[in-house]
Write a structure and sequence with these properties.
mainly alpha; A middle domain of Talin 1; 2% strand; globular; NaCa_Exmemb; Putative CaCA family sodium/calcium exchanger
Amino acid sequence: MPQFLEPALQVLAGIGLLFGGGELFVQGSVALALIFGIPELVIGLTVVALGTCAPELFVSVSSVLKGSDALAVSNVVGSNIFNVMVVLGSSALVLPLRVESRLVRRDVPLLLAVSAAVWGMASAGRVTWQAGVALLIALVINSVWEIRTAREEPDGMEEAEPQINSETANGGWIKACIRLLIGILLLTVGSNQLVKGASDAASLLGVSETVIGLTIVSAGTSMPELFTSLVAALRGRTDLAIGNVVGSSLLNQLLVLSSCALISGGTGLQVDRLIIERDLPVMVLTTLACMPIFWTRGRISRLEGGILVGLYVFYVIDQVLPRTLPTWQDGFRLTMLCIVLPIVLVMIVLQALLYWRQLRRERITHSVD
């Protein structure tokens, strides 16, 4: 136990530094953007969004620079799974989430398409630098598209975007730069501590860095998204809670993964075979499962939120069973495949059918009138 104490403290300290550094990074960036006269809408769609994924970016880049490609990739994949299942599910448990903005309705299919594309890119066992360039180009196109869409339909976007505090810029550009630099410093130190602690913990526990990245590291780097969405749900800004999840998941793949692929150079970003066969499909399927949830009745109920959180618990159990109770693993997976997943799918399909039937009746009623 004393041997495990040091890496555990490093992981906790790294998560704390990442959280504080990300907050200062956002404050400093927003202040500088306001000083330079950048519109608040653009700040919300770019600078603030970048700040929420800063922990994932710094941790994954630090992992690649230290030769831990498995930790970098598993952090991205695990963060996306955590965002959809835990962040979205927990927010719905706090307050049923209404899906009203065109932004969320458009971004969910886009997130599904990007996730499927990343799965395809990684299927060969690595993400090449060419794939990284393609993802970055997609990020630029999507950012421009979002800004233009927001300007054309501002009324439907206001609730989906974070509020910008104009008083942030009152301290002047010097204080803004100091906040930004301190934030970057904390993010750098925190990411190094988290990567070192996670690697040491994996060695002591006898598990791969992939498993640590998919669970502890990804959950730690996703804490800013969790807190942001929970606070948004408590304040009744449910579109912001959903938009935060979808936007962060997009940036994890379009920015974080692409940056790691570019840094890896000609060899490419190596992807563990287990991630390709198990975790990337889980990431795509969780996004796919959200589409009928988003489109039915325009809300995510507490029941659906509870299902998402419960599925993540099962996912984590499946990660740790091979090391703790290996004889139970086959039985657990068989139960998930034959009982749990079919029940969840039937519930989603039934809800979608009932909703579409209700819409059809309403259209018939309107046509008769």
